[in-house]
Amino acid sequence: MNITQLSNNSLAELLLTTNNTRSSQYLNYQPIHIIDGAALYKTTVNGYNAYLQILNLRKLQIDQLIGNVNNLGLGEGKYYQGEGVGDSPFFEMKLFSQVNHQYQQLYKKQLFSMINCAFFEQYKLSTQLSFPIKLDGQIITAGSSPYGPISNPKHKFYRQVQLKALVWNDQEAYITDYNSTSGAPLNGANVKNAIVSYQYSDHPAKVLANNQINRYHVISTLSENGVNSNMLLILTVKKATLNQAAALLRDLGARSDIITIDGGSSTYLFNSKVGNIMRPGSSYLNCGLIFRKLPHYLAFRTKD
């Protein structure tokens, strides 16, 4: 079977084309929603739930949805071509239900799923994003996280950490190393959309919180690092560790680096057939911190 064509085929049939011999792993995945170009599956492993999305980028459009800028954060960027060179704007926090409603008003039956995306820094009406993002050919933030490869990170582990970039176009995606000095690969004229984030093993929840059990998104592809793949794999787990989530993706044939994006209480997973699977939740109420409003989302829809 050609993996560029994903319709009503089983997960086992699809992923066995990667020469992965662990076919028994697929038997525990139950289909929730399958369309031409995308599939959502659920499994329960060792008491925790995991939701797998298989997305064919030759048939699906990825849209970045982000709040309006209300403070430019001039010179506050840390991760694009050097510290203090770029800007790190404050983006308005948007209620997940409003974002979803507005997007569905635009695209009606085309929407397949939606997730939260970038790590962010402030739990206020607006927030800076942690790492660089390129949107429609423009660097919209140089990031401002204190937990990354900057001169004085908040923890020594992050002084030398290697950030990763997920790059995509209307056909394919790849994951590769991110160079904060040159801005590569985001500085490439041919790169229109990209996000910079942690490799799963460098997430503070793993490094500083003893591989904490929580809710997470992990993302990979069916190709090696830096090699384009039309198949994007997104696994969303509940009450699991990042190690467990990454192991599931490896078992399913993921071959590139595995990155993680914003998770924990702010984890959001929506599917057009079943609705909200995981809602961003309120947390630390005694501190007044509410996670239902988020600054950055990814939406996946069938192409026109």
Give me the secondary-structure topology.
Blueprint: H1 11-15, E1 30-35, E2 38-45, E3 48-56, E4 60-66, E5 69-71, E6 90-92, E7 94-95, H2 96-107, E8 111-116, E9 126-128, E10 133-135, E11 138-141, E12 164-168, E13 173-177, E14 193-199, H3 204-207, E15 214-221, E16 231-240, H4 242-251, E17 259-261, E18 269-271, E19 275-278, E20 293-294, E21 296-302
Antiparallel strand pairs: 1-2, 2-3, 3-16, 4-21, 5-6, 6-9, 7-20, 8-18, 8-21, 10-11, 10-14, 12-13, 12-14, 14-17, 15-16, 15-17, 18-19
Protein name: Phosphodiester glycosidase domain-containing protein
Organism: Dulcicalothrix desertica PCC 7102
N to C succession of SSEs: HEEEEEEEHEEEEEEEHEEHEEEEE
User: Any idea what the radius of gyration is?
Assistant: 18 Å
Largest sheet: number of strands, sense, barrel closure: 11 strands, antiparallel
Helix content: 10-25%
Strand content: 35-45%
Structural class: mainly beta
How many distinct beta strands?
Answer: 21
Number of helices: 4
Mean residue pLDDT: 89
Which regions are unreliable across 5 or more consecutive residues at pLDDT < 50?
Answer: 1-10, 18-23, 284-289
- What is the CA-CA span between the terminal residues? 25 Å
Shape: globular
Organism: Dulcicalothrix desertica PCC 7102
Protein name: Phosphodiester glycosidase domain-containing protein
